[in-house]
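Forgive a beginner's question, but might I ask you for the amino acids of a protein and the tokens describing how it folds?
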Amino acid sequence: MHSEKTIWITGASSGIGAETALQMAKQKVHILVTARSVDKLKALADKAKDLPGTITPAPCDVTDQKAITELYAKMEDEHGPIDVVLLNAGTYFGDSGTDFSADSFKKTFDINVNGVAHCLEPALKSFLERGKGHVAIVASVAGFRGLPKSVSYGPTKAALINLAEALYAELNPKGIKVQVINPGFIKTPLTDKNDFEMPMLMPVEDAAKALIKGLDSNAFEIFFPWPFVVLVKLIDMLPNKLYLWLVSKLER
């Protein structure tokens, strides 16, 4: 065994996935990191070579269900039972209703939702057999209610929040910890695509610290930066007529 705990992180080639893996490696844990880019995963592992923990590349495309299932079996065969699954892989297209694309919509769902499902199936099967495990799904505040320029991304994150709630209700009594992570704006390659002002943009290093702290807690929902997320939650409580009027004003 490489460590006291084994953690699997998807979407780990950059952004919050990579930073979380690096910060976790400061403890004596073993982190398996998945993404399509072999080179980026190897570079991430090299950064952790002098840390107490270890990072091992496990390259794969989350949209390939067969490959993910085979990868999970291989990881457990080589590294033992996985204790924590952090499903972070995702993409974002700043699409809108004025240039709606069914292809973009389907592609976003394939990565953000189906990719999570592909990872969940083998993980939950293993967890249920052992009667323990920890699943954390990265969604977003964009999944709370509909937002302009988020006609495919927002619905995928809403689906993940709903999924996490359903899983919690069924799996928590069986000893499996389920959490959902709803970040606000985090400084990553994905948010670098945005051409609009992002309130309370959070450095990825701080976001990773908040995420790890949340994983160690008993909270179902992990969110950060908390002032922004609380504000969004308050806005989301507005009646439909007022909420839709407000977001329409923001769009203009």
Observations:
- The mean pLDDT is 91.
- The first strand starts at residue 6 and ends at 10.
- The domain at 6-227 is CATH 3.40.50.720 (Rossmann fold).
- DSSP finds eight helices and seven strands in the chain.
